[in-house]
Amino acid sequence: MAPPAGASVLNAVADSPGWLWAARLGQGAAASALSPSASAMVARVNPAAK
Predict the structure, then answer these.
(1) Contact (Cβ atoms closer than 8 angstroms) between residue 10 and residue 27
(2) Cα–Cα distance between 49 and 29 in angstroms, integer?
(3) Percent of the chain beyond pLDDT 70?
(4) Taking the alpha carbons of 30, 36, 37, 41 in that order, is the dihedral positive or negative?
(5) Using an 8 Å Cβ cutoff, are 25 and 48 in contact?
(6) Cα–Cα–Cα angle for 13, 21, 19, nearest 5°?
(7) Which residues, at least 6 apart from 2, have a Cβ–Cβ distance to it below 8 Å?
(8) Structure pTM?
(9) Nearest in space to 7 (alpha carbons), one of 19, 21, 25, 23
(10) Is 21 helix (H, G, I), strand (E, B) or coil?
(11) Distance from the first to the final alpha carbon of the chain
(12) Which residues contact 40 (CB under 8 A, 6 or more apart)?
């Protein structure tokens, strides 16, 4: 299971504030890791737009 999906599943089944906090931290870390690669992909698809 991919980290963003795992964090979302953990968010759904969290039974305490600590687990909820950990799930949100995981989702944020996954989003920040995917953002640069998504930007690079968009730039590669449309090189004329800078």
Answers:
(1) no
(2) 28
(3) 88
(4) positive
(5) no
(6) 40
(7) 30
(8) 0.59
(9) 23
(10) helix
(11) 34
(12) none
